[in-house]
Amino acid sequence: MKILIVDDELQNRKLLRDYLKPFGHCDMVADGKAAVELFTTDLEDGEPYDVVFLDIMMPGMDGQKALSKMRAVEKRLAPERKDTPVIMVTGLDSPLQAMDAYFRGSCTDYLTKPVTRQTLVEKLRKLKLIPEGEDSE
Prior knowledge:
It is built from five helices and five strands, in the order βαβαβαβαβα. By secondary structure, it is an alpha/beta fold. The chain has a single domain (2-125), classed as Rossmann fold. Strands 2-1-3-4-5 form a five-stranded parallel sheet, with helices on both faces. Helix 3 links the parallel strand 3 and strand 4. Helix 2 (32-44) runs parallel beside helix 3 (63-77). The chain is globular and about 35 Å long. 28% of the residues are buried.
């Protein structure tokens, strides 16, 4: 599985990477602009991400704007392809923003911080990105 982790906080990126690396290759970037660029390049190269974990609150281009740009890139470059699952990651104080991203921005799901390994694995199972019972600890 190919995974993109986007968060402006290094510790958050490392935590998600540590939880996710047993399931596949993880790329990490610190802002929305870099995320859109990497997402676009990999889709153009025919090596799209299987899932994106996208922080909502970031300086510069926030997660909402990055998600909107990613969806536009998908429509332009691969209109026949199913949308890449994008899981928005938010602090406990911003669940309304997560819901907004869900309904307006076409995100697939969301997680609230602090993210636990168990909730992350449950999301991957729910999206059928890992088989039921796989835990790769």
